[in-house]
Specification:
This protein is α+β, with helices and mostly antiparallel strands. It contains 7 helices and 5 strands. The strands form 2 sheets. A 3-stranded antiparallel beta sheet has the order 1-2-3. It has a two-stranded antiparallel sheet with strand order 4-5. The N terminus is likely disordered.
Amino acid sequence: MPALALLPPAYSRDEWKHWTDADGDCQNARHKVLIEESTTEVTLKDKGCAAESGLWLARFTGTSVNSAGDFDVDHMVALANAHKSGAWAWDAERRKDYANNLDDSYHLIAVTASANRSKGAKGPEDWQPPDQSYRCQYATDWVLIKSTWGLSATELEWSALAEMLGTCDQPLTVAIDRNSEPPSPASPSAAPPTPGSSLPFNPSGEDRNCGDFDTHAIAQAFYIAAGGPANDPHRLDSDGNGLACESLP
């Protein structure tokens, strides 16, 4: 009798400690995003700890908003989506780091509350930004986050990403690594995924300038996430000239 496939543990938002104040200045991660993304000086309240008003361009809808109360700060790849994509195996500290990550400007973004509710925990196969001109950026950022955090993606998800990447001025494509699987729920002691572990990369061979990558998008995602030639753990710029994956057509 074949073994039954096991599902990941149930997602619980309570296990993802978010909106922390890492530097102790009283402004939590949510308000730091709002302050950073406003195109005008932000009016603060609560003794300078919270954003009250400013001018924001809501990325999903392309609309302008003045009141911070009309905005949500969205995890581009939702916590629940990350959970089912392999993050269920992370420890509490890594979940907190993901939920409050301010290192990458595309990880947490300010969007209208209505758009955030519409998106929820859906992936790109089930939801795409109403502002079609933003879909290229949306797909690019999604790929960057999944590659940086070592999260898996379904084939339907990749198909939707490929469609959106096709709207870019310079169309990109994505590749599916069918040999990579998220950690198995049958082995809860398995080490958490490491950045890049869910996407194809061959560090061996004479040409280490992208290895077995056969398309540009994910290779470039690795490269950008690594910070370029000065911090390039995947060795995508083997000659150090600032251009990744030159061996690709």
